[in-house]
Amino acid sequence: MAKKPQKTDKTKALNRYGWMVFFVSIGFIAIIVCIFKTKYVEGDMWRKLGKQVTVKENREIHPNRGNIYSDDGRLLAISEPLYGVYIDFMSEGIKEDTLRKYVTPLSQALAKKFPERTASQYKKIIMDGWALSRKELAYNANIKRNKLNKPYKRKSRYVRLIRSDINYVDLKEIKTYPYLCQRSNRSGLLLEEKTMRLKPFGPLASRTVGSIYKEYEMGGTSGLELKYDSLLRGEPGAKTRRRIQGRWIDVVAVEPKDGMDVQTTLNVDIQDIAEHALRNKLVETNAESGCAVIMEVATGEIKAIANLDRVSHGIYAEGNPNVFSYMSEPGSTFKTVSLMVALEDGVVTPDDVFYVGDGVLNYRGRNINDHDAHRQNKGYVTVRQGMYSSLNTVIAQMILKGYEDNPTKYVQHIHNLGIADKIEWDVPLKGREGTVSIRYPDDKHNPWSKTALPWMSFGYETQVPPIYILMFYNGIANGGKMIKPFLTKAIIHNGEIVKEYKTQVINKSLCSDKTLREVQNILRGVVTDGTGKAVNSTMVNISGKTGTAQIASTVGYRAGGHYVSFCGYFPSEKPQYTCFVGIRRPEGIPSGGLMPGKVFKDIAEGVYSRNLATSPIDVPKDTLRSPVPKVKGGMYNYTRLALKALDRNYKVSDNGSDWITAFPDTIKQQVILHDRSVRENLVPNVIGMGARDAIYLLENEGLKVVVRGSGKVTEQSLEPGTQLVKGSVISISLK
Fold it and tell me: How much is the pTM?
């Protein structure tokens, strides 16, 4: 039997090579098939997946919110970005050994910068977050591995590191701290950007200026911020984020359009005067709330508007828009409306007389009482004297004389004046706020009673908010031309005026020149010889009318308390400003002259001494006209500029820091300016400062300020030099 031929080494090698070629060919074909499948069959899926990992499209770029300015261009509201600081412990780049190495110095740095927590507390928060994240990762891995039907846990993914939101300057600083100085994918640092409105003048006019939500998308919450939200917020842009070499790069696709600016008619100095004068009287009388509003006679520009509500005993803050929302009976300030109507219709003259007796008039079974009823028998009283003394019985008889048989004529004349017109105001209001209710005799929804006419004549049976009373009295001051009070002066974009608001005339002529002169003379007499004597000033002539009304309640007028007011203008001979002051539910004997009238006087004298005085005789001797003026502590640069402008001698002690304390040196006839040290994370000393500088400094340090009184700071609730905790409340008292 023949033997099989043995394979040579060459044949064996060829066989092995053949098999290798075969398997490589199979692999090559498989690769080609996979490439074809990946590119053409699954291409769309993989391209989308790759894009998700390396490209993030249509990410919104927030525009800068527009600013709000005062009448002279000073900032009332400006945007400041805030950041919530978190650590994402699920971040893939976090290394445990690096975290443990730097957690102690990081905690110490955070405790020094943000002392609301100790270093040990910061360390515990970080390490607890890390430990919990590891447990949850293991738990989730077990669910995935065993394909369990349980929800994944993500509670510990984001742990808040710093309790409060921080600004950009603080953010840059913490990014230099140990561990956080790494890239965010390694440190897990995660930021939640928000927007806060910074108000350089603190709570001044804060209700009118308004506020915004921290979340940009939600916009304004109140005031001008809400009214002009669509203009202020701007238009967002868009960007694409691309991951290149391990780093995210932003590529802007659409540039954002910054919001427009709003310039208001508000004057910071007049606003400061009004708020302090009102707050002082509210504290003194422990009133429920109050309001004050000042407008420029010729233009209708509102120069100040204060709305203060009692927060707690002795503490008042901006709350409701009282100037527009006091939907109550106005009381005796409305008597001027009745007087003008009666004089214009020829019903009476200022010297016509009516019998008053002891101040009680019974009309159809209901008594109309004067404020001094039953005290004495006054006999016959003229219309002029009735207005001076604010006698309800005189005004009621005057209106009954002319309109008892035709009350519609009286009501129609009031409507013809324009004070019942529905007007669009510059602030957002709710429901019936900012509207007038003066009904007709045939009103089916609010039936006319048999005593409605005389009671309407002296300010009851109607609802007229303060802004309308102000507008009417301003018409008297403005030669009979009644114009709309307004708050918005212009809309500005990139420094250019987009829209400018002009004076809007409501009624070109309230009455004849003769009637107007008679009304003006009577309003002046109210202050010199009537219920407004407390308002009379030796500095500036004031004209106006007091008002005292009982507030209706479910158990009657007497239980509702009182609403006292004063409305008028100054100087009487050439009016430049009209002002309304109202106070609700004050304690003590209610008086339109002694309560809101005193506030009006303080405002008028304050505004006059700042804006209208032309001679040193017109102002007190302790003002800046003195050779050695009384200077409040505050910012060094502003104090120096003021002293230079007034040509007053001063000397700078020490090295002249940003903040100073001022002392008069009567011997050398100069003002000494001493350094006032402001140390980081310590409560500043604001004793001796004015309100604006004190509020600015304290709020700049992160404190919430409650102000009492006016003048210079005499007390502060937090001891100067103690550890500062941002967000704490500090009360300052001024005298």
Answer: 0.71
